[in-house]
């Protein structure tokens, strides 16, 4: 605990019976008390964050890390999207299915989500073909399309995780079950 405080400015007294005594001024004592109060306040704040995260994860239907990339669906009259199959823009994110929303966090310890998508905005959930990453690990994937044309593509090396998310979203969004996978390889 003392490592948290700055003890460099303390003056040390002479040795008496093999023990050293620190002589503190009133200002030094007040400074240490202030630092201790700050540490206790930070501890209380971190505990509140941990309790908040714990509550969300306990009540979440699904949660876990997946690789995500986002795309926009071309609007009528727009040129076709650029073929970006050679671009590796999969980013690991912590995803939580809680209540009527999907929450996307940068990491599992974040308090605020980076993005939120209400299930009522989801118009399509489908499977994508599996693909291999640079390390030759097979990735299984699915996509979520919102009514605004925003598309999340999610992948994981766990087929069970992808299947769980796919079925949960299809059920929660009340979409008809169509498990066909489009032909052709999925780009990285």
TrEMBL record:
Residues 22-49 form a coiled coil. InterPro entries: PH-like_dom_sf. Keywords: Coiled coil. Signal peptide: none annotated. This is PH domain-containing protein.
């Amino acid at each position: 605990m003392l490592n948290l405080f700055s003890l460099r400015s303390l003056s040390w007294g002479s040795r008496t019976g093999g023990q050293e005594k620190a002589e503190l001024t009133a200002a030094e004592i007040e400074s240490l008390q202030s630092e201790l109060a700050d540490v206790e306040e930070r501890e209380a704040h971190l505990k509140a964050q941990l309790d908040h995260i714990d509550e969300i994860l306990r009540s979440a239907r699904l949660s876990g890390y997946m690789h995500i990339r986002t795309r926009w669906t071309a609007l009528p009259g727009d040129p076709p999207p650029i073929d970006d199959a050679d671009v590796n823009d999969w980013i690991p994110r912590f995803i939580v299915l809680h209540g009527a929303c999907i929450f996307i966090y940068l990491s599992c310890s974040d308090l605020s989500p980076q993005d939120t998508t209400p299930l009522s905005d989801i118009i399509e959930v489908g499977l994508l073909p599996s693909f291999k990453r640079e390390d030759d690990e097979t990735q299984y994937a699915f996509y979520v399309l919102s009514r605004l044309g925003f598309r999340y593509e999610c992948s994981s090396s766990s087929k069970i995780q992808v299947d769980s998310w796919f079925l949960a979203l299809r059920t929660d969004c009340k979409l008809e079950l169509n498990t066909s996978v489009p032909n052709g390889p999925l780009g990285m």
